Structures are given as C-alpha cells and as structure tokens.
Structure prediction request, 393 residues.
Amino acid sequence: MIDRDITPQLLKSAATSPAVTLTGPRQSGKTTLCRALFSERAYVTLEAPDTRAFATEDPRAFLAQFPEGAVIDEIQRAPDLVSYLQGMIDDDPSPGRWILTGSQNLFLLASVSQSLAGRTAVHHLLPLTHDEIARFERRRATLDETLYAGGDPRIFDRELDPSEWLRSYVATYLERDVRTIANVGDLATFQRFVELCAGRTAQLLNYSSLANDCGVSQPTAKAWLSILEASFVVFRLPAFHANLRKKLVKMPKLHFFDTGLVCWLLGIRDPGQLRSHPLRGAVFETWVVAEAAKHRNNHGLTRGMSFYRDRNGAEVDLVIEQNRTVALIDAKSSATPSGTLLAGVKRVRRHFADADADCHIAAVYGGDEGQPHSDGEILPWRRIRTACLPEAG
Prediction:
C-alpha cells in the first residue's frame, strides 16, 4: 500500500472526534487505508449478506460485539445502524473508537448528518492524485498515459490494463450501485447519459441540451446527475461570482474526478488515441481541475474553487481563493511552452485589479519544462500540485 495524502487529516480527526466517516467512490482505497491506519480496531464489513442481516435485525447486539469500537465498512448498507451508534458514542465519546466507510455519498451523509451530527468527522477519499500515482514502483508515464489511466488504485497496484478494468467498473457501477442509490429502470439509457456527460466534461452544464440528447426529461437529467455526484463520478465546478461589475456566466461546469473513466466512456482504448482526439483539451482541463480538487480535499480544503467566464469572452479554467489570495489557472494541453499560454489569465487578472486580494496567475501545460515569467508562471503538468497548493512549492 502506498502512502495516501489524506492520512494526516484522518489521524488528526481520529485523535479528537469519537467517530470518523470516510466516503468516496468505489475502489478508491477506503478499506485498505482504514485497515492500515486503524489496525488495532476490529474490522467488519456489511458487504456480506449474513453480517448485514445481523446489523439490520439486531443492531444493538451487533454493535455490542465491539466494546472498544471498530472499523465498519460499507456502512451505507445498514443506514439505521448509525442511529444506534449515536447512543454508544454519547455514553463513551472517546476519540477514534468508530471508523465508518461508505461509497454512496447521498444516503450515507444524510444518515450521518441526522444521527451523528457533532460526533463524527467526515472525509472523502477521492481517486489517486498524480503525486500518489508516482509512488508506485516503475511508474513514470507520459501525459497521455496519465490521462488514459486515471486514478483508480487497483490499476497501478496490480498493473492492470485501464480499459479492461474500467469496463468492469462501469458494468458493476451500473448493475449494482445505481440500482441501490435510485430506481433507474432503464440502465441502457442511463449509460448513454453517463457517456453524454463524458462528452461534455469541462463544458458548461446545460440540463436542457443534455436531456434532449439523451431523450429524457430535464428533471430526470438532474436526478441522474445527482446520482453521479453521490457516487463521486462527477462534480460541478461553480462559476465565480463577486462584485467585479462584470456580467458573469452563472452556469457551473461539469467535470469528472477520473479522466480514465472519461476516456473509457469516450471510446478511447489506447493512450495514442488521445493525441489527436478532439476532446483532448477538455480531458486535460478536467484532469487539472480534478487534481486541484483532490489535492485540496486531501488537505482539508473543500471550498474556494470556481471558474471565471464573462459575457465578453474573458475566461480562466480555475480560480482558487484561499485567505486573501486568488490564483488564476488555465489548463493548456499544448506541449510547447510559450508566453501566449498566459494571455487568457492575464486578461482575467485585470478584472481583479480592484479586488482586495493578492492575485497570482499560472498556466499548467502539457510539457515538461517550467517557464517563469515576471508576471506569472508556466507550469509543467507534473507540477500541478504547486498550482493547487501554492504553499507546497
């Protein structure tokens, strides 16, 4: 097992909170991480039908098996269990006794927020960052190979073919998780919907267009997108909004957490196909934004990300606000560094001239050499962490 960047956050929470809840997409490594970090705790998974039946039918007796606490995996399969945990935590609020994991954000967090409010610290384990992938042996990939493989730990741990693994992942997700989260009767149409979302990654989220192309109603499209968000498949990047006296676009952008999944859904079965693919730029932008989201999540920073676009065409792919600092970041898939890569962020920076904050600009591009400028920086894609967390250097 490699070291995961979220580890310090989990250990800090376990030292101060009676329970820690770790959610995230299926196969993101939640079980492996929690069993390694909390090996002194008993472990039980609600995946097994007999264990799940015991937890559901006699929750008090089930929890009584673990007087010192436990790691309870797939907690969303017995959502009422957290209500009984509430009483046990109130009786003994010792920190770090209960470690809960689950892969369905929608229902799990609803249950936790109702029963364990103030009693548990909630964290999300997202797909691997580029830094985490680099910790695997023999891992030195090109940009196209990185976009194509995505961030599922098993692909790198077992050196699997990304296309084969993602094919099985999508089949399992559609046949199992979607039916558990919501009553989706037509899985074929839902898969078509997911594929259409992949074709719109890094684009403004237009429910009307998405619904029409899929042949479903707008309410259905919104409900299905909520399923994808609950499963940590996609996320919405909000539009920047502030009093800049500009007419700003208000629609969010759609992004995927895993570009490997995007590539598979787009029918890309080899990294070489990306070189001339019409959506290569969009896939790279999604990779940059997702890397920022994952890095910041792993450091406990869950807010402050948006994009900027106004009615006059000024646009920047990512705005990161932290304390009194604003970072403007563009994603450029070009492999050649050039000062022109900073043109878009320079134009937007002028709109922040009167803002009461320090403004830094950067372009993350598809090449390997950095290029500092007097008023900004062109960063190679391998140094994406510097743009996401400027203090990391």
About this structure: Residues 130-236+256-276 form one domain.
